[in-house]
Amino acid sequence: MVRGKTQMRRIENATSRQVTFSKRRNGLLKKAFELSVLCDAEVALIIFSPRAKLYEFASSSMQETIERYRRHTKELRANNPPMEQNLQHLKHETATMMKTIEQLETSKRKLLGEGLGTCTMEELQQLEQQLDRSVTSIRARKGKALAAENAILLSQKRSSKELNPEIIVLGPPGVFIRYEKEFCSRFHVLKPWESPLPLAQFLEAQAQNTRAALCGGMFGLSAPVLHHLPSLRMVATTSAGLNHIDLVECRRRGISVANAPAIFSADVADLAVGLLLDVLRKISAGNRFVKNGLWPKQGAYPLGFKLGGKHVGIVGLGSIGLEVAKRLEAFGCTISYHSRKKKPFVSYSFFSNIRELATTSHILILCCALNEETHHMINREVLMALGKEGVIINIARGAVLDEKELVRCLQHGDIAGAGLDVFENEPRVPNDLLVLDNAVLSPHCAVFTEESFGDLYELMSGNLEAFFSDKPLLSLVSEDDGDM
Questions:
Q1: Which residue among the candidates 397, 403, 405, 451 is catalytic per the annotation?
Q2: Which of 110, 223, 226, 252 is buried most deeply by CB count within 10 Å?
Q3: For 310-339, how does the pLDDT look when each residue is reduced to its tens digit (9 = 90+)?
Q4: Among residues 253, 444, 458, 465, which one is catalytic?
């Protein structure tokens, strides 16, 4: 009996060892499969390789992957800033590694297979430990690769800020929207409109050391805004006009201002002449007359006025005013002008009094800057002096002209017509203007041409680069600037 029980126990122990051995064999096979997936190897090669070669093969494959990481990490760290191609390569490898790690976790539940042949228990244990170390090592390498990638991205961001001078864009102006990529390649750009913070808080948090700003004509660069930019020393505005900038405060703070005085001159002058022709010849009104089907019903269309031979008074003989004068001379017009100072280099008649200029003119074209002196310069008195056949064109700023008085004069026939590209409260336009056939309106678009935007980008970026290079600004605003 005792002998039979002993023999039974031996059989049970051998069976138990066989079960344990089988479990270990199967478990090891699964780990080999997992590592083969991790190292991008052929599963069949793992399964049918001699057991002595199994770990050597898997380890070699894993080591090759690790060496690729080391090589790329070294290359990326050696470059400042790192090459984008290498960075993308590292991102790709990291993503691939993450995917294989996920496969490693899920493969345990999927693989069923045979054992590894005639391995002893000790060999299986040793091989299992080696594979465990391999999996742990490759996981660690994956973590280091991710850390290296993050370090590179942070270094790249810091390098961009260090290599490219910092500017803040306020508005943003249209030219920045069109050429954002180009601006960002040359400067480290702060973009307040992308932040959830109010402007003042953004400036306090992000722009205390910013030395240069880019803004458009619709952004009010006032004393309170400048207060939040203590290090600001240069402003580049994309407009010719300067009424949106507190120039007195800028001078007090030692801030240089650059504008776009001549970039748009030809385009604005073209639109001014276009508006004038439209008003005189009733082009827009005639277009509506035809499209609304009134021609067959009402017959003859009202007469317009010729442009040739008219006396034109230009208010503000700056770069735009001179371009307007040049174009109208070609039509046979007589040119006179009003400006803060007489221009010694032109032969046009000069009027120091704006009302006297209106009295002698058929047409007034406003080309001056908006400031305290020119605000509502064109009032009822000037409009009445222009007379019932007079036409006024405004491509300056809306508030140079008293809009309410203009509407009354147009409604009552005190002047013949108006062409307006600018308004007092843009983009809101008085409803009374919208229904008048003798008023031609455009949405402050005189400067909007593809050619001018390209030139404007070059001028603005050139001014900014000149500032950071301690060179003279390309279009510095002087204290005497007042005509556009």
A1: 397
A2: 226
A3: 999 999 999 899 999 999 999 999 999 999
A4: 444
Q: Are 80 and 159 in contact (CB under 8 A)?
A: yes
Q: What are the CA-CA distances from residue 398 to residues 15, 263, 480 (Å)?
A: 100, 21, 22
CATH code of residue 238:
3.40.50.720
Q: In this structure, is residue 401 part of a structural domain?
A: yes
Q: Give strand pairing partners of 236.
A: 214, 258
**How many domains would you assign to the chain?**
3
Residue 408 corresponds to which tokens in the numbers above? 């009354």
**Residue-number span of the structural domain to which 354 is assigned:** 265-446
Sign of CA dihedral 18, 20, 24, 30: positive
Question: CA 83, CA 186: separation in Å to the nearest integer?
Answer: 17
The catalytic position among 426, 428, 450, 479 is: 426
Distance from the first to the final alpha carbon of the chain: 121
CA 305 to CA 427: how far, in whole Å? 30
Residues 213-236: what's their mean pLDDT?
Answer: 95
444 is catalytic: yes
Query: According to the model, what pLDDT value does residue 243 have?
Result: 87
Clarify whether residues 196 and 250 are in a common domain: yes
Q: What is the pLDDT of residues 43-90, one digit of tens each?
A: 333 433 433 344 444 445 455 555 555 565 555 555 544 445 555 655
At residue 236, what are phi and psi to the nearest 5 degrees?
Answer: -110, 120
Write the Ramachandran bin of 329: left for phi over 0, alpha for psi from -120 to 50, otherwise beta: alpha
